[in-house]
Design a protein that fits this description.
single chain, 243 residues, alpha/beta, eight-stranded mixed sheet, 35% helix, disordered N terminus
Length: 243
């Protein structure tokens, strides 16, 4: 699994979008018990801390110690530096396993083997993610220019799984047809810039060219944003659920 986010762990914790409560409520409706959940590739614990409100115990793992250092510490969450394919837990431990905006980096076969080992017989696996946000026509055009024209060749090949809405990942489970959800939030222009700075392709560009491509795009993005103090932002949620 690649670690593209340790170097910007603090920014990731601040600017990455959060999933709506409706998504969690839907997942809770599918599980038969709430004794334990595993949030794999938890990053800064964004999902784990929500699960901790419902589950007796949450096991949250990530390969990035820097990401975990940004996570909210709660008494019923165990944070552990571990890969997606090897956890130090007994067989059939979890009612729910979540992996959010990360499975495209995994060795699928190795992860799924660990899922099948650690999931309870009536447990649920939820693969979650989000696609490219949309704001309004002008801003979207500029963001797509950054995404495709400037950063296109700097995206890791695994990014295509997100562009394909996770529909093309292997998924050897009995699948549950899930409803559609969106992340809905409001941003200032500075929040937009902060979020764009967390893109892994932007980091790759900076390393290759020793410049931040937002230097070229800042004025165009600002003009596209206009005079609005805040704008509504929507992210389509990607969701595969198996049992």
């Amino acid at each position: 699994m690649k670690d593209n986010f340790s170097t910007q762990a603090a920014e990731y914790a601040i600017y990455r979008p959060t999933y709506p409560q409706e998504l969690y409520d839907y997942l809770y409706s599918l599980v038969k018990g709430k004794s334990a959940a595993w949030d794999c590739a938890t990053g800064n614990g964004q999902v784990a801390r929500i699960l901790a409100q419902e589950f007796e115990h949450v096991y949250a793992t990530d390969i990035s110690e820097k990401q975990l250092s940004q996570a909210l510490k709660l008494p019923n969450i165990t944070y552990q530096v571990e890969s997606s394919d090897q956890t130090q837990v007994p067989d059939q431990s979890f009612n729910l396993i979540t992996v959010a905006q990360a499975i495209h980096w995994f060795n699928f076969d190795a992860f799924y083997s660990e899922v099948k080992r650690t999931l309870k017989p009536d447990g649920i696996l939820a693969v979650i993610g989000y696609g490219l946000m949309f704001i309004d026509q002008k801003v979207d055009k500029s963001v797509h220019k950054l995404y495709q024209d400037i950063l296109g060749k700097y995206w890791d090949t695994e990014r295509r799984y997100i562009e394909e809405n996770y529909k093309t990942i292997p998924f050897p489970f009995e699948e549950v047809t899930a409803p559609h959800f969106q992340i809905k939030t409001s941003w200032t222009f500075n929040q937009l810039i902060g979020y764009l700075n967390t893109w892994s392709a932007l980091k790759h560009y900076k390393k290759a060219n020793e410049r931040n491509p937002l230097e070229y795009m800042f004025t165009e993005l600002k003009e596209a944003w206009g005079n609005d103090e805040v704008k509504d932002v929507h992210f389509p949620i990607l969701l595969r659920i198996g049992k």
